[in-house]
Amino acid sequence: MKGKINHGSFVSIAQLTDIHLFEDIENSLVGIQTELSFQEVLAKAKRILPRIDMLLLTGDLTQDGSVTSYSRLSQSLDDFGVNAYCLAGNHDDLPVMQKHLPSEYVHVNRSLDVGKWRILLLSSVVVGAVHGYLAPSELAWLKDNLNAYPDRPTLIAFHHPAVPLGSKWIDGICLENQDEFWEICDRHPQVEVVVNGHAHQDFDQIYETPHNSVRCLVTPSTCVQFEPHNQKFQIDNQPPGFRHIRLYTDGSIETEVHRLNVGSFHPDLAAIGY
Ligand SMILES: [Fe+2]
């Protein structure tokens, strides 16, 4: 594996999510050409971050699950030259993704160690459905991993948000079995951060369980955004973006969202009949 991670005082992660690439490179989602906005977000991450140790891609990598979309994404990530760890969202086709995405810098590992931290990537996808669910096998795997590495601060990533975001329509399509997930996190104090996509918006909140306190992060899409706190589906005019996460050796984190310039990649509401 190339692109060895630099074990400095923190691990620098750029999270990119909900890329929604199409087989046809010129296709758009709500008037935004997803390949172009993705490339601009990648370029901005490279330009503004002093160091990127790894990319974390949290699902809906393609809109159509096509071989061409995954192959093109794979090539882009190889060109970027930083190890990228990828998980699937509801729009992805997992077998196609597992076959056509991995390459020199692109991985579909379910776990990795970076510095003192452990990162676990789960699948919350229910085939054919928009909402998420962590299957008993995923929860069992999570428990086993947490039991095996109690001393490593842990970041858990999957596609569907695990807490209500205060938006009725989105909360109805997030992780269905949130209680089961949080029961496990409650028993494993090394769980520090949960990172999701799916909601196409910035969300950053501490979730308190009886015995643990976990930072919950949701990140804007690299293309179209959804308006936060709206009870009905509403496209947001905010530009595409990504999240920078710094994992420190003492188990603490720092994070913020960066976006492209205001006005870039403006959604076209007429494209969805608004
Ligand atoms: Fe998405």
The gross shape turns out to be: globular
How much of the sequence lies in strands comes to: 25-35%
Helix content range of the residues, please? 10-25%
Helical segment count: 6
CATH topology: the name is Purple Acid Phosphatase, chain A, domain 2
Backbone structural class: alpha/beta
Q: Write down the domain tally.
A: 1
Secondary-structure element sequence? EEEHEHEHEEEHEHHEEEEEEE
For the termini, the CA-CA separation is 47 Å
Q: Over the alpha carbons, how many angstroms does the gyration radius reach?
A: 17 Å
How many strands, what sense, and barrel or not for the largest sheet?
6 strands, mixed
Ligand set? fe (ii) ion
Assigned CATH architecture: 4-Layer Sandwich
By CATH, the superfamily comes out as Metallo-dependent phosphatases
Description:
- The chain has 6 helices and 16 strands.
- With 274 residues, the protein is α/β, with parallel strands linked by helices.
- The strands form 4 sheets. It has a 6-stranded mixed beta sheet with strand order 6-5-4-1-15-16.
- The model has no long low-confidence stretch (mean pLDDT 95).
- The structure holds fe (ii) ion.
- Fe (ii) ion is lined by residues 18, 20, 60, 89, 198, 200, 221.
Main traits of this protein?
6-stranded mixed sheet, 23% helix, 274 residues, 16 strands, binds fe (ii) ion, 27% strand, Purple Acid Phosphatase, chain A, domain 2, alpha/beta
